[in-house]
Amino acid sequence: MADVLAGGVRIAYQRRGHGSPLVLFHGAFEDSRVWTDTLQRLSPHADVIAWDAPGCGGSGDVPEGWTDHDWADAAAAFLRELGVVKPCVAGFSLGSMLALLLARDHPDAIGSLVLVGAYAGWGGSLTPDALAERLQAARFTMEHPVAEWADGFLDTVFAGDADPGRRAQARALLDDWRPSTTAALLDVASMDLRAALPAIRTPTVVVRGADDVRSSREAALDVVRRLPRARFTEIPRLGHDCTGPELDAVMLDALATTAH
Q1: Which DSSP symbol is given to 229?
Q2: Confidence (pTM)
Q3: Cα 128 from chain centroid (whole Å)
Q4: Residues near 194 by beta carbon (within 8 Å), at least 6 away in sequence
Q5: What is the rounded distance in angstroms from the CA atom of residue 259 to the CA atom of residue 100?
Q6: Structure letter (DSSP) for residue 47
Q7: Mean pLDDT for the stretch of residues 72-84
């Protein structure tokens, strides 16, 4: 791990490989370790960078009072500090929202987007009842031990026949999650980003696992419709977490498009 100071926060990251830059934004209850296998597989083909978002992993805590613009500014500052120019940015779940904020506020900082398990913010992709349930579940995680909610949460993230090792890794990461980060992220996660999407002209691929029960197909297609330069791809037999060789191929294709 290495780290840089960006947006007033010390941000830790992993970096492997050489070539065109591919930047990976993890989801909630995770850090860059979720991309360990991806880094290994893709490092022969790209300069792969996986950050620990502020408040996650080895990074510093989220400053009090941070807004959505602060999150976008920190992501842009992170790219500048690393000298990364117009990378392909791939974001999973919560990471897809942060990638959209980056594209909204700093469109010249990125070359392409891959949005995995994507949301136009929870407020833009969930019904009011589903949003209320999601917020209630998030607050429950802040107030109760991980053992009380981990299995139920992971059941919504992984398909029933998902790789047990991948699920075990995700379970281990839950033990390191900071409840204060959940509190800092709730306002951002609850945003409705639909009105911002038509102005984001970055080439984008929206990726969904066909068995995803957290982010619906309709929500993914709505993001595609609203983004001027987006296309949709669905990976069979995978859930919300659809990291693996199939997603690798999508990201490398997007990276090749960025490079040209």
Answers
A1: T
A2: 0.97
A3: 23
A4: 120, 121, 124, 222, 226
A5: 20
A6: E
A7: 97
